[in-house]
Amino acid sequence: MAGNIKPSEVSEILKQQLESINSTVHLDEIGTVLGVGDGVVRIYGLNNAEASELLEFDNGDKAVVMNLEEDNVGAVLLGASVDIKEGYTVKRTGKIASINVGMGMLGRVINPMGNPIDGKGPILGELLEMPLERKAPGVIYRQPVTQPLQTGLKAVDAMIPIGRGQRELIIGDRQTGKSAVALDTIINQKPNYESGDPVYCIYVAIGQKASTVANIVEILREKGALGYTIVVAATAADPAALQYYSAFAGAAIGEFFRDTGRHALVVYDDLSKQAVAYREMSLILRRPPGREAYPGDIFYLHSRLLERAAKIIEQQEVAEQMNDLPESLKGKVVAGGSLTALPLIETQAGDVSAYIPTNVISITDGQIFLDVNLFNSGVRPAIDVGISVSRVGGSAQVKAMKKVAGTLKIDQAQYRELEAFTKFGGDMDAVTAMTIDKGKKNTTLLVQPQYAPMPIEKQIAILYCGTNGLLKDVPVEKVSEFENDFLNNLELNHQEDVLKSLKSGLINPAIETILRNVASAVSKQYIK
Amino acid sequence: MNIGLISKRYAKALLAFSQESHLEETVFQEMMLLEKTLRKEPTLLKALDNPILGVKDKRKLLLSVVNNPSSAYSGFMDLVLKNRRESLLRFIALTFEGLYRQSKNINSGTLITAAPADKVLLEKIRAIFQKVKPGYLELETELDPTIGGGFIFDFDTYRLDASVKTQLNLIKKQFIAENSRKGY
Known about the structure:
The complex is a heterodimer of chains A (528) and B (184). Chain A has 528 residues and is of the alpha/beta class.
């Protein structure tokens, strides 16, 4: 009702607000719109405008300076082109494009400018202004990746481990489960959140259908993951500039957590679409096209974005001196934070040697390659272990997992090779038959349903059975049944002595004996 | 990428040529008229951009913009058409205006008010301008009742906005920002 009094309308508060109002008249620098089209405006004037500076039109719309030319300025619109007309006045703001970030953003869906789009009202709480474009931390402000970031996926945590501060690419054709791997990783951070050591997640949806974004938000809500997640959405209907800036907005939000000593994970879904949006902008701005019509700085676009993922040094006095620190963060820096990046790239017909995939592969610290054939044959997540790597995650892997799954990758590669040979027919010797049997069972063990990440201790326990041949008496089709029974048994009878130790990364002969005994007891029911 | 550079080169050449032939004032008026026409008639710019339209037709169009075009103006149009730079004519005209004003130390300004401005206000504005940028000021006045009160003074690429409308907007913005920060 209009007659209702809001809490903010108490006279004393209104008085305070009036006192703090700045009504000084400023001399603004202005320009005139010469032409507008396809999300790009050409402006006459603004002689002192800076690159990436935010401009404001009379109607409140915003644009960002992209091209500085001799007699005009090219800027990309952050709203609809139809609202801007030739002859409009545009004003410099003196600020570079930035986003206001705060804890109030958690659980919200926002656009790349930081405005909520989920209909839940304004974002509350203290907000810090973070620039969208910012230099990555220098060498001295970083430290090597040492802490693991568990994805909850057996195949990833065992063979392609990811560390906090790492950049791991998820690459594959359409409909191979790229987003599912990223979403599982977000969902798997729930125990950290509940235990008070959260890994804040930022999911950046670039150029996706609005219905897909709504679906993802709903999944996150259902799984209880929205409380520690921020969704940045620039849908396919949004201007190319917003799609281009959405990834930078995600990075800026991640930096807020990283530089305040917390851990964050940012998922860019996906960078192929961001590259396409940037190509569109560049061509309209008449920048010279290069390979596949992408502009010359497309590599720099992705490298400068992904370089912002980092593990910050533990020394507080060094971290406080971090380069390119925004004003809003000064005095608030806490050492030891991290920002992990999971960029996604969509390939066409499995071609990883195309322009954008090769660029991003070379920038990141490893890649998870999802294969369409594996996906169709029921291996999900459809990770091709042969060409998936993690270049730095190994040092962050839990010791127990390292010990248990150390040979899993090689075993699986060997199995794939032998399996190919057996397709020609002929007799097999006992060793070959055993390797193939073990490989088949391990492959089945690594299959995992969607949105069901597994805690690390359970992963170690079940993979112990796989790598040590404890499944030799279990038929392949009963492996998943065995897995359930085995893990239920451990949960009921060995919570303290086995699972707790494995969670802390400890594995010793006593634990191994228990695991062997339980496996043997469970597998007995499958012997015919 | 080179739009700015090209238009500046043409504008510089035209200014130097018109100064040598003592036609700078005439050429300035002609170029301003051309810029105004291009701004008001977007179809003219489209026609100039059209590759199907021949050079002769484009020349006719460009010369018809001004009455009795000077030799410098017509010669310049021939040069632009010969080099296929007619799509940059608006940029060239604007750059020429800037260079001409700079060479003569003439500044242009517009005063927008809600009610007709009196002489006292105009003198005050001129005085403010002289403090910021000494030189001659061509001051135009415009009426815009939507600004509510106060004034907006535009000169060069600057704006001094002391209108009631802007002040109210500013207060509104600050109120919203402050309230959302405090969580009301």
